[in-house]
Amino acid sequence: MMQSIISENMTNNSENCDWYAHRSTARILMPLHYSIVFVVGLLGNALALHVIRPNLKKMNSTTLYSTNLVISDILFTLSLPMRIVYYALGFHWPMGDALCRINGLIFYINTYAGVNFMTCLSVDRFIAVVLPLRFSRFRKVQNVKKICVAVWIIVMAQTLPLLAKSMLEVDGDYIACMEYPTIDKNENLPYMLLGAVFIGYVIPVVTILVCYSGLCWKLHFSAKQNHLTEKSGRNKKAISVIFFVILVFVICFSPYHIDIIQYMVKKLHHHPNCSEKLAFQVSLHITVCLMNFNSCMDPFIYFFACKGYKRKVMKMMRRQVSTSFSSVVRTSPDGSSRDAIDNNRIVSVLLTNKLKS
Questions:
Q1: Which residues form the G-protein coupled receptors family 1 profile domain (predicted)?
Q2: Please, is 161 exposed, middle or buried when counting C-beta atoms within 10 Å of its C-beta (0-12, 13-18, 19+)?
Q3: Which string of DSSP letters, residue by residue, matches 50-63?
Q4: How far, in Å, CA of 262 to CA of 297, rounded?
């Protein structure tokens, strides 16, 4: 197997273009980035799972979509230690072809499961506020479960073919895993990737923007008729959820997909030279880092989408603030103790009011 990979990649690398000229910088910055993603993403999503798990029997549509998003993120973060080792070794994968394929599969599952379930969350919030009667059946738990199963089937159909071909590429003394140069020689690649971007990114983005626009229009129209409408907790929740979904798309998913689009369009017009290939490879690594950061940002969506998650986080914050001020009281001079206690009470009241809202 390894000999066939080597001989194949000797042909692929006949142009002698160094795709990994940034190796020395990447082996420092990329492990650092993914270490942060691993810690923050695992803790944030583990907390969400801890909050959701006791309430499985009381699940609603929003919680179901959030749960599937949590599972996808946790699965991804658990695979990150292998990627951290890979980048620390300078794009060298010593763990074999099978683990490389599985790792790549988990990466793409997380990407498109995240995109699809965030789209479902936006549509769910749109129906809850704009069309609560006409399409309420789509928010029933039994139907939402079927939608979630359908989403996973679509994601698997998109990603499982990746297991059919090796993702390893030999580059001198290094063995790269799941890197763009492995597939660069495919003549149909621009059409394949542009089609994948349209299905996996453009359609979800348009759907989310339509939901957000429709929601804002509905709330603006309702506020004119009844000023109490704009203060509705359900309306604020819907706006917050879709706003953070859009924010995740703008920060995490958009740079990667826009990068793919511009390079594939360039390939359709001419054969990129070595400097253009290197620039694309560097930009691809940067945008992939941003895209994987979605595992850290998703907990912000849960904060506004799931009451239990919000309540748990606020309770932890209140406990932490209370502990900090108690420590200040013990170490402060007598003259300042009363001020510290008063501040403690004020912060506790503010957090309590925030939790109730």
A1: 44-302
A2: exposed
A3: HHHGGGGGG--HHH
A4: 26
Distance CA 98, CA 237 (A): 43
Q: Mind listing the pLDDT tens digit for each residue in 153-181?
A: 999 988 888 788 888 988 888 999 999 98
3, HSE (Cβ side, Cα atoms, 13 Å)? 0
Measure the CA–CA gap between 161 and 128, rounded to whole angstroms: 36
Closest CA to 311 of 349, 344, 346, 352: 352
The CATH-assigned architecture of domain 2-305 is Up-down Bundle (1.20)
pTM: 0.78
The pLDDT tens digits for 111-154 are 899 999 989 988 998 898 888 878 888 889 899 999 999 999 99
Q: Residue 89 in 3-state DSSP?
A: coil
DSSP codes, 152-218: HHHHHHHHGGGGGS--EEEETTEEEES-GGGTTT-TTHHHHHHHHHIIIIIHHHHHHHHHHHHHHHH
Residue 223 has what pLDDT?
Answer: 63
pLDDT score recorded for residue 7: 43
Structure tokens belonging to residue 116: 């699809």
Look at residue 8 in the predicted model and tell me its pLDDT: 44
Tell me phi and psi for residue 326, to 5 degrees: -65, -35
Using a 10 angstrom Cβ sphere, with 0-12 exposed, 13-18 middle and 19 or more buried, the burial of residue 27 is: middle
Q: How far apart are CA 154 and CA 156, in angstroms?
A: 5
Asked whether 141 and 67 are in contact (CB, 8 A), the reply is: no
CB count within 10 Å of CB 217 equals: 11
Q: How far apart, in whole angstroms, are the C-alpha atoms of residue 36 and residue 289?
A: 11
Q: Interior CA angle at 270 toward 275 and 175, to 5°?
A: 45
Nearest by Cα to 23 from 113, 106, 92, 80:
92
